[in-house]
Structure formats: structure tokens, C-alpha cells
Amino acid sequence: MPKIKLPRNSPSIDMTPMVDLAFLLVTFFMLTTKFRPEEPVKVVIPFSVTTTKIPDNVMTISIDSAGRVFFDMDGKDVRPQVLQAVMQKYKLPITTLDMSRFAVMGTFGVPVSQVKAYIEADDAQRKVMSNGASGIPMDTLKNDELLDWVTSGVEYGLADYNTKLANKQNTKAPSYAIKADGRARYKIIKQVIDICQKAGIQHFNLITSLKSMPKS
Amino acid sequence: MAEVNTGGGGGGGKHQKKRAKKLSTRIDMTPMVDLGFLLLTFFMLTTTFSQPKVIQLTPPVKSDDKTKIQDTLSLTLVLGKSDTVYYFKGRLSLNPDSNNVMQTNFSNDGLRKLVLNSNQFVMNSIKPLQDQHNANKVTDTAYARLLDKAEGNKYARFVIIKTDTNTKYINVIMALDEMNICNVGKYALIDANDDDMKMIADYKQKHKAK
């Protein structure tokens, strides 16, 4: 009698579909991820029911619970120009290397005199510096540093937008956001808004996180 | 002598015919898969999907702050500290004995109810609109336009939100949010003046005495 041959099962299974799926997901996450530099300040933003998304190309002024003010803006091309303008105004030296490092830096909140040291520091040192600093000074009548940052930011942001628009490059109109901690006093936010108005900003976006609409 | 036998051990002996070794067409994909999943895990953990949302605000520029509001249509909220709201309808009466100042909080039965009741005129007019919108009879854009129109009606309640030096930012956001929820289209955010502060002080004194 002939022996019945059992088909031999291969011990390895075909992984191709799984790999396809895995790489599809990798590609998806790679394309959707937006890397943000670590923020030196913890801001607990309040909730609201609004569903308007935060616009692109935004200048963000953060205010933490103690009322310290931090500055950040989008635009790798614009940031070095802003830095240069502000440093020039305060007659402080700045190198090209510092400028290129500043281009990819996140939000910061140190007085102008410490900005150079802050740029050159590593992440851990930056954290220490941010915790020790009192934010960007804005209450002095003589040297309103926040006003200088915002003014330069508005000026170069708009200039960059207009050049890119003229060259038919992909760009978004600059917008301005305030990211304040719910525990901060409104007085400080009002002060920041006043300063921004001085710099010519009219429309503000107050950053909140989403909560669901209550049932009426 | 100098032949290199690549065929391995087994097949020597009887089979003299030379046979090309069959190479497997499969390559070992395991390392690639490992890497793939590593990257997948990394991106999954670092991605944040919830984009922050924004409340749009266009504060008036100081010089052109001359909007006249009909007293009968105004509702003034003064945001005090520790989540309290003092409010009065119409013009503030400086007489401490007058009863037009009240206190409330940010709960659903507090500010929400107050603003909804004050905004009854608009709420009534947008009710049919909302129903139509829910039944998909109007497009979103048309709905938004009609809503704006209803909210901007000449007889709609005007809410004045006043802030004090001790007001917390979260309370301001909560008040602005109530405006959104209760469909108040006309509101302003301004500083409380001395009269308002005096009114609150009077109110507190009176209620402490009781």
C-alpha cells in the first residue's frame, strides 16, 4: 500500500501583508507627526467648547500660572531675522551659529541679556535657566522687551509672508495666539494684549483645549 | 583537487549529476519587520492628535471705544475672585440699598441659566433654525450666516464682561465660553471701574451683615 503523503506545513508564515500594514502605518505616522521642541514651561490651558483650529504660521505668547511671559513663533526663515533685530536694538553680539540654533529652538522666556547664553545652553541647562528667569520682562517703561520681540516678529513675519506670496510660494498669513495658564491673572494677559495691540496686532487666538458642548 | 564543493555534505555518493543548488527566493524579513514595528511604536507614542483649539478675540483699540449700548439691553458681569460673578442688568445704580446687584457662580444653574434667560430673545429666534439645521435642511454655511444675523439683532442682549485685577484667566475663558454656548453674539470684555468695585464691596458688606 502506498503511503499517504501529508502535505508538509511550512513552519514560516507569510508575513508580507503584516509588514505592508506596518509600513503603511509607519508612513502615516511619519507624515502626520509634527515635532515640537520641548517647552520649558508648563501651561495648563483652560477648556472651552470652541472648535476653531489653531491656524498655521502662528506667533505664540505663553503665560504660565505665575504670570511669566514666554515668546515663540513659527518660521525657520523669520526667526533669525527677529533675533538679529532684537539683539541689535540692545547692542548685544550674536553669531550666525546662534542664529541658526535659534531658528529651531522652541519657546523661551529669558531677558534679552541672557538670550545668547540660553541659545548656547543644552536642554538641561535651558530648563534651569527658564525656571530661574522671570520670563520676558514687559512691565518696565524704558525697556519693554516683549514689545520689541513682538514688534520684530510682526514686522519680519509679515515681510516674509509678502515675499513668499510674491514668489508664489506656499505660505500662510501670520496669526497671533495667546496660550495662557488658567490660573494666571487676567491682568497679565490684558497687559500682553495691550502690548501686542501696540505692535499692531488686532486679532488674537486664545488657545484652549476642547470640551464637549453641554446638552441644552 | 582544487575543487570547492559548495554543495554541502549530503548529496555526494550515488547522484553523480551536478545540480545547481536551488536558492530560496525568500529573504528573511524579520529584521526589517522588527525595525518597522519599532518605528511604528515610536511614532505612535510621540504623535499628538488633539490639536489645540482657539477662541478668537478682537479686543477694541483704546481710542474708538465709543459704542453706545441701550441700558435696557445690557447685562453686566463682573468677574470677581474665586469663581464668583456679580451681575446687574441695565445701568449700575450706585445706591448701596438698591437690589440690582446679584451674585452667582460658573455652574450650569448659575451663569449658564442667567445668560440663557437674558438671551431669551435670541434663543427663541434661533430655535427653529437649530431644528432645521439638525434635520439637515440648511447647509452649515447658511446656518452660520443666519445664526450670526440672529445674534446680531438690534434687540439682542448685550453682555458686558468686566474684569478686575484679581480675575483669573480661566474665569474669563469660562465667561467667553458661556457666550458661545448661549449664542450671545454681542459681548465686550472690559476692565471694571471704581464704581463696579465699590458696588461689589457694598454687596459683600450687605451680605456679610445678614
Characterization of this structure:
In chain A, helix 2 packs across helix 3 (96-103), helix 2 (78-89) runs antiparallel to helix 6 (145-166) and helix 6 (145-166) crosses helix 7 (186-198). The termini of chain A are far apart. Chain A has helices at 16-32, 78-89, 96-103, 112-120, 123-132, 145-166, 186-198; strands spanning 47-48, 58-63, 69-73, 175-180, 204-210. Helix content of chain A is 42%, strand content 12%. Chain A contains seven helices and five strands, in the order H-E-E-E-H-H-H-H-H-E-H-E. Chain A is α/β, with parallel strands linked by helices and 216 residues long. Chain A is elongated. In chain A, a hairpin with a 5-residue loop joins strand 2 (58-63) and strand 3 (69-73). Chain B is an alpha/beta fold. Chain B has helices spanning 30-46, 108-118, 120-134, 140-151, 169-181, 194-209; strands spanning 53-57, 74-79, 84-89, 102-105, 158-163, 187-191. Chain B is elongated and about 120 Å long. Mean pLDDT of chain B is 76; it is low at 3-13. Chains A and B meet through helix 1, strand 1, strand 4, helix 7 and strand 5 of A and helix 1, strand 1, helix 2 and helix 5 of B. Strand 5 (204-210) of chain A pairs antiparallel with strand 1 (53-57) of chain B, so a sheet runs across the interface.
Topology diagram in text:
The complex is a heterodimer of chains A (216) and B (210).
Chain A: H1 16-32, E1 47-48, E2 58-63, E3 69-73, H2 78-89, H3 96-103, H4 112-120, H5 123-132, H6 145-166, E4 175-180, H7 186-198, E5 204-210
Parallel strand pairs in A: 1-5, 2-4, 4-5
Antiparallel strand pairs in A: 2-3
Helix pairs in contact in A: 2-3, 2-6, 6-7
Chain B: H1 30-46, E1 53-57, E2 74-79, E3 84-89, E4 102-105, H2 108-118, H3 120-134, H4 140-151, E5 158-163, H5 169-181, E6 187-191, H6 194-209
Parallel strand pairs in B: 2-5, 5-6
Antiparallel strand pairs in B: 2-3, 3-4
Helix pairs in contact in B: 3-4
